[in-house]
Design a protein that fits this description.
- The protein is mainly alpha-helical and 102 residues long.
- The chain has one domain.
- It has four helices and no strands.
- Helix 1 packs parallel to helix 3 and helix 2 crosses helix 4.
Length: 102
């Protein structure tokens, strides 16, 4: 499995606001089982979604100047939630592995 592709997918998903922390964490569990071609297609789809998201954000900021401040608050909160969710998933995975070894 190409680690660079997985890192790119993770970064793209973190930047897309349509994914909740729980969805990102659960989806990332399945990525190691995807075929190489599937990873390439997923990257293309996520890149297109990110481009469209950024275009929409620029449009919203032009229409509503206060939107930028609200978006910043949302991004900060989402980042915190994603970090907590990743940490929880990592801990849970580690505990599952340890329990299987016992």
């Amino acid at each position: 499995m190409n680690e660079k592709k997985i890192a790119k997918i993770t970064a793209l998903m973190d930047q897309l606001y349509c994914f909740s922390p729980q969805k990102v964490a659960s989806y990332m569990k399945r990525i190691p089982y995807m075929a190489e071609k599937g990873l390439d297609e997923l990257i293309k789809t996520l890149e297109a979604a990110l481009k469209e998201q950024n275009r929409m954000i620029k449009t919203w900021i032009k229409r509503e100047p206060k939107f930028a401040k609200r978006l910043t608050t949302f991004v900060d909160e989402t980042t915190d939630n994603l970090t907590k969710e990743y940490e929880k998933e990592e801990k849970s995975s580690a505990e599952n592995i340890l329990s299987e070894l016992d």
